[in-house]
Design a protein that fits this description.
59% of the residues lie in helices and 12% in strands. By secondary structure, it is mainly alpha-helical.
Length: 119
Amino acid sequence: MQIDKDLVAASATPLVLGILAEDESYGYAIMKRVRELSEGELDWTDGMLYPLLHRLHRFGYVTTEWRTPPEGRRRRYYAITDEGQAALAEHKRQWVTVARALGDVWRGADLLPFALRTA
């Protein structure tokens, strides 16, 4: 399935903030987590992720720190800030409203299993 680029763009910020709310991470690991969460449907490129991370840093939603792990090369790690947590909470409120509206307009469609998967 090809997900519309507008929907990918709209979901990018809450997805990245949500991932960073789980734990700090670096770019490649974030892209891998997005692929994992979407069961391979979202396959982001560096050209999509890094401009978003830079924007989130400019907004004060994430901090960055360069680190060199013992087993690898130097990486820039990103961590969510209190401002980022607040932005994530607002994104959640907005997405719940949109999902509720879509559920109402698509009456009869069983969307809940898709929206609320359990591990």
